[in-house]
UniProtKB/TrEMBL annotation:
One Pfam family named in its UniProt record: HTH_18
PANTHER family linked to this entry: ARAC-FAMILY TRANSCRIPTIONAL REGULATOR, HTH-TYPE TRANSCRIPTIONAL ACTIVATOR RHAS
Keywords on record: DNA-binding, Transcription, Transcription regulation
Protein name (record): AraC family transcriptional regulator
All copies of domain HTH araC/xylS-type, residue ranges: 179-277
Annotated signal sequence range: none
Length: 284
């Protein structure tokens, strides 16, 4: 799949012409047998349930799904009889035409593949529905200025799609970044980690990083690090005869008294009490 930036770059080179716009409410027994698609088209599902099979692969047709069909695709479409599909569709053709080094480059659709193909999940459905509604309304009118407005709305629709995909990608990248710092803490909990350093590692401000970490992990970064250290200390208290100062140092605390306060705050008992309760040999 192309990145949103690559999609935008490819779409910027295209001159598109609308062939048909419409809004369809399916009957409960609606079914289109497998057939080869003749035209490029976008379908936005807004209500109901169904299944679309593209090239032998089954896809759920439900609100928030956008389908981009290209000529030659073998597609079968059917609705759930209890929840009939409702969708907007837009049929179009295009030519690639752009200027490069003061030379105009022109390619047919056969020479330049359309950058959207298959099924996509969209999150900004209300804005897309609004744009499809406007295009559907303008399709019923005629006139040169109306035709210009349709072109502008089509470009706005494509821009909305790319922006939506970019936002989804950014959210996914952010989640991965948070998980990377989580993994780093697991492997380096004994080191003097700071909130500022972790946020810098994630490429985020301290406040934004803290907020996202709490959202995805369930703890603040410092609370998560504290629990990592205390959990490791519990193991050492039960399984070893190390002195309290050594155990504190091995989990990232240089001050054994501060470590004891943190440990009791998290567990409800002091390290010595915990060791006495969970192993036979008391801590030195």
């Amino acid at each position: 799949m192309l990145t949103p930036g690559e999609m935008a770059s490819r779409l910027n080179r295209l001159v598109l012409s609308i062939l048909l716009v419409g809004h369809q409410k399916c009957a409960p027994d609606w079914h289109q047998k497998a057939r080869a698609i003749k035209y490029y088209s976008l379908w936005l599902v807004i209500k109901g349930r169904g299944t679309f099979t593209i090239g032998g692969t089954l896809y759920p047709a439900e609100p928030g799904k956008l389908f981009c069909f290209a000529p030659g695709m073998v597609v079968e479409r059917t609705t759930d009889p209890e929840q009939p599909l409702e969708y907007y569709f837009l049929r179009f053709h295009y030519t690639e035409c752009y200027e490069e080094k003061e030379q105009w480059i022109v390619n047919s659709a056969e020479e330049s593949r359309f950058p959207l193909e298959g099924m996509y999940t969209v999150t900004n459905t209300p804005q897309l529905i609004y744009l499809f509604e406007q295009l559907d309304m303008l399709w019923k009118r005629r006139g040169h200025m109306t035709a210009m407005r349709r072109k502008i709305l089509l470009q706005e629709l494509l821009l909305t799609l790319v922006t939506d995909f970019r936002a989804q990608r950014a959210a996914g990248d952010t989640t991965a970044t948070i998980e990377q710092t989580q993994d780093y803490m697991i492997g380096h909990y004994q080191e003097p980690l700071t909130l500022e350093g972790l946020a810098q590692m994630a490429g985020l401000s301290v406040s934004h990083y803290s907020r996202l970490f709490k959202k995805y992990i369930g703890y603040s970064p410092i609370d998560y690090l504290t629990h990592l250290r205390v959990d490791r200390a519990k193991e050492l208290l039960v399984l070893s005869d190390y002195r309290l100062k050594s155990i504190a140092g091995s989990v990232g605390y240089t001050d054994e008294f501060y470590f004891s306060r943190i440990f009791k705050k998290v567990t409800g008992v002091s390290p010595r009490e915990y060791a006495k309760k969970h192993r036979f040999t008391p801590i030195q």
